[in-house]
Design brief:
Length: 334
């Protein structure tokens, strides 16, 4: 019989220690990982950034990753989008009674691998076991701390008319992957999540220029939602060229069958960048040198007209207002 997580593993006794040592400590070991109540860490110089995020993706395993990889990527990318080098993470697990121990080990191994890729250390954590049916498999919450790059100020209210809008690769891949992984539609397509840690790409960009106004990762709600948030915060209009928006053929095919807009499907390894037009060439060259951003391109511009709205220049030469995001398109994509 395969070993599973039991309520005793969350009781704080012998079984809890065995779970922590066998799964978490084995994969997360580093000089800063603590067995005490809190990690004591050297403080970075200058300003710090801090963020937290919860992950309840269903299914927990999908082509291109699992909830463990996602939990690291989501938090380090949030730090990176502020111009902060990820340093430390804490992680909290809520695990359903009966969850396969083998799968938990796979999740921890994915977190270990992704943390090393991102250059971040997991330094503290917590484990709870919930009764059968109280949790869908496993939920993870990660909190991250990073060191701000000096002289960088990127925020949603900094977009300016004349800026260009850049995406770092094809859009909608993660949301499409999760949709197909649920097998609700009987569609067969080879789609893999774009889930990836992106600090190295942001660092490459900032090594070229600090004149970047906004950087956002297009997770829930996708690129379209991010653009509406930026337009609203900065009180500007955004004009997109539909022909310039990169969408993988397989994602476009699935969206065509289901009547979905790829701009509103989640990404987990794509950035939306707003920067002065004169900086675009240098930024693109830097991004193209990064494995997860080889498809970076300009998809639009920031305008003074129609503040708060996103306008699409269509493929047939017309114009259309991109609908404002609303409702629940895909539940539990991260």
């Amino acid at each position: 019989m395969k070993e599973t997580v039991t309520l005793a593993h969350g009781g704080g006794g012998k079984q809890t220690s065995e779970l922590i040592n066998k799964v978490f400590k084995a994969h997360f070991a580093n000089p800063d990982l603590t067995a005490d109540d809190a990690a004591v860490l050297p403080a970075p110089a200058g300003k710090m950034a801090m963020t937290t995020d919860g992950f309840i993706v269903s299914p927990a395993f999908f082509p291109g990753g699992n909830i463990g990889k996602l939990s690291i990527c989501g938090t380090v990318n949030d730090l990176a989008c502020m111009g902060a080098r990820p340093l430390y993470l804490s992680c909290g697990f809520v695990i359903e009674e009966g969850f396969p121990m083998e799968q938990l080990e796979q999740i921890a191994a994915a977190m270990e691998k992704t943390a090393k890729e991102a250059g971040v250390r997991i330094v503290a954590g917590d484990t709870k076991v919930a009764g059968k049916g109280q949790v869908d498999g496993v939920f993870i919450t990660t909190t991250g701390v990073g060191q701000m790059e000096e002289g960088v100020h990127m925020a949603g209210d900094q977009a300016r008319p004349g800026d260009v809008v850049i995406v770092t690769g094809d859009v909608g891949r993660h949301g499409c992957t999760i949709l197909l992984s649920r097998e609700d539609f009987g569609i067969e397509a080879e789609v893999t999540s774009d889930c990836a840690p992106l600090w190295s790409a942001v660092k490459a960009m900032l090594d070229v220029t600090h004149r970047v106004h906004v950087t956002r990762d297009a997770t829930r709600g996708g690129v379209g939602t991010v653009l509406y948030e930026i337009a609203g915060q900065s009180k500007v209009g955004i004009r997109l060229d539909a022909r310039a928006v990169p969408v993988a053929p397989e994602v476009r095919g699935v969206c065509g069958l289901l009547g979905l807009e790829p701009l509103y499907l989640a990404c987990e390894g794509r950035l939306v960048i707003v920067a002065p037009e004169e900086e675009a060439r240098g930024i693109l060259d830097a991004l193209h040198s990064c494995p997860d951003c080889a498809g970076a391109c300009v998809i639009g511009r920031v305008t003074e007209e129609q503040p708060g709205r996103v306008i699409m220049d269509t493929e047939i030469g017309g114009q259309a207002i991109l609908p404002e995001p609303g409702g629940e398109l895909l539940p539990r994509i991260c």
